[in-house]
Amino acid sequence: MTATLPERATSGVAEAPALPRHRGARATALFVVLGVGLVLLTVYAAGRGQLAIPAHEVWGSLMHRIGLDRGTLPTHPQGDNTLWQVRFPRIALAIVVGAALSTAGALMQGIFGNPLAEPSVVGVSTGAAFAAAIVIVFQIQLIGTWTTALFAFVGGLVTTLLVYALSRADGRTEVVTLVLTGIAVNAVCASGLALMIFLGDTQEREQIVFWQLGSLNGSRWEHVGVVTPLVVVGLVGAMLMACRLDVLALGDRAARHVGIDVERLRLVAIVLVALLTAAAVSFAGIIAFVGLVVPHLIRMLVGPGHRVLVPASALAGAVLLLAADLIARTAMTGADLPIGMLTSLVGGPFFFWLLRRTRRTAGGWA
Question: Mean of the pLDDT values across residues 52-64?
Answer without folding.
Answer: 92
